[in-house]
Amino acid sequence: MRRxxxxxxxxxxxxxxxxxxxxxxxxxxxxxxxxxxSIATAAPALDFGRTLGTLLVFPIFDIRTQTATQLRITxxxxxxxxxxYNYVCPGVxxxxxxxxxxxxxxxxxPHETRIIDVAAQHPPCNQGxxxxxxxxxxxxxxxxxxxxxxxxxxxxxxxxxxxxxxIRSVRSKGEVLGSSEGFSFVNGPNQDxxxxxxxxxxxxxxxxxxxxxxxxxxxxxxxxxxALGMQNPISSVFVDFWSSSEVPFSSSLQFICWTEAMLxxxxxxxxVDNLGTRYGSLQAASALTCxxxxxxxxxxxxxxxxxxxxxxxxxxxxxxRGLQYVPCRDGSFDxxxxxxxxxxxTSExxxxxxDxxxNxxxDxxxNxxxxxxNxxxDxxxNxxxxxxNxxxNxxxNxxxxxxNxxxNxxxNxxxxLTNTPTSxxxNxxxAxxxxxxxxxxNxxFCFPADNQGSNSPNGCACIGTFDCCGIxxxxxxxxxxxxxxxxxxxxxxxxxx
Length: 497
Prior knowledge:
By secondary structure, the chain is mainly β. Among the domains are: 36-177, Hypothetical Protein Tm1070, Chain: A (Sandwich), CATH 2.60.290.11; 197-326, Hypothetical Protein Tm1070, Chain: A, CATH 2.60.290; 446-497, no CATH class. The chain is 6% helix and 31% strand. The protein is built from three helices and 27 strands. A six-stranded antiparallel beta sheet has the order 1-11-2-8-4-6, with no helix packed on it. It is globular, with a radius of gyration of 32 Å. Mean pLDDT is 74; it is low at 23-46, 346-484 and 489-497.
């Protein structure tokens, strides 16, 4: 009896060991941590607006009496980053064209959110906008699509808040951005950021006064192509608007660098009594105009790069929201040329007669399409366009409508087939219908190179502390390259210029 119990115990012990070796005890497996900055690939697909980006634009700050503005900037990356930003003040058309600026820098650790009290930094004006970007150790702008921001404006019980406009860079993380002419938003080899839009839209509350007070809307616009801390030309905008019953109106607006305009001051038809309805819709289009009346040429016309918000106010309504951006239908927006077609990639080779054909007819057809883009020769390399199929030796269908009967009836003949060329056509690529004649000019962001906001007649710098080693023209553009390098120790100096 004892022996049987011992045997049974040993069998159970062996069975337990076998099961343990076949199925090892489960141990918690650590989930792999995401690769550094992998969040960049998970960011929303929007090119700019409510997304993470490199260039942050806060369309408005307001520190007038009893009003306060708070900025919030967050680093969603896994590395430290230095953020350089500028407070930009508006000019006044026909009074002063100078747009003062004040630049500041903060350091952000991974996932840190920095809160900035605008009044505590003493900008040179009470209203304007803020624009900023990350920089490297040499104070050069770099690509870092892991930033976001927001702003909050309070005045008594009224609170206006919205996200900053985040514009994504098209370059790799850490790559230096810009050139001597500033940042480029135009598709091409020198592009820094996603293209901007020539048209902004929004709905609005029309101006109305009753016993409870006045209600209406304010339009806030800024020119992202303004020269910071320098003189600027007037920006012109065409404003089209409609009542909610689709009655159209049109007007225009001019400003320098930034503006906040009550809609009824833009056009009296924004009033309810004239508009006919309490609500409506509007669109503001960037106008390509000459910076100096009668000076174009030789001066190049320019258009503002529009960013903005709409603010509603009144006893029963309040709030601020960003405008909607309508990009160019085909191409990108350049402030000196308007909407331009996308540049053809340099790596894309033009088809030649030596290209390998996909389908080669064994016999040369007698009927050849008129004005073909690719017509077969003795040994054609490309199928004729606009034919959809290549003739073969086995005829099945007749050409439609043919004027001459082919010796070998093609299976599906190109349409139209009317004339026979006297000589064998060659492969002649059709010239593009919308190819820019020159590489679009990059957007200038010029201001004095001393990084302190004073004029510098012997030189200029592009946005931030990005030296361009050139001369700033009256319109705020960097020209030439005859400026000596900044002395060592000068903030933002580049001794290599």
